[in-house]
Amino acid sequence: MAIAITTELLDGCVLSLLTHEDYYGYAITQRVQEFTPVSESTLYPVLRRLKKENWVTTYDQPYQGRNRRYYKITDDGKKRLTTIRSDWLDYKTTIDQVLGGVNDEK
Question: In the chain, how many domains are there?
C-alpha cells in the first residue's frame, strides 16, 4: 500500500527536479512517477499552480514540428523548496519518533 502524497510534498518533488534541469510537462510526470504514483491529470494542475505562485516559469521549444512547454524553477521557487524541505525534515523526524518507537519506554 502506498502512502498518499500531500500537495506540499508533490510541489517539493517537482521543484526539486527542476533544480537540476528544466523539464517539459510529460517528462516531469514520468520522473515523479518513478518515486510515487501520480497521474498526469494530478500533475498538470500542480504545474499550473506552481506557475501562478511564481515558483516556476515556462518557455516553449520546438520539438519534431510541435512545441514543448518547459518548466524552470524561479528564485521564489527555490525559496519555497527550502521551506518545503525544512517542513519535511521536521515532519519526518516526528513520524520517525512515533513509528520507530524512539519515545517508547524500555
Answer: 1
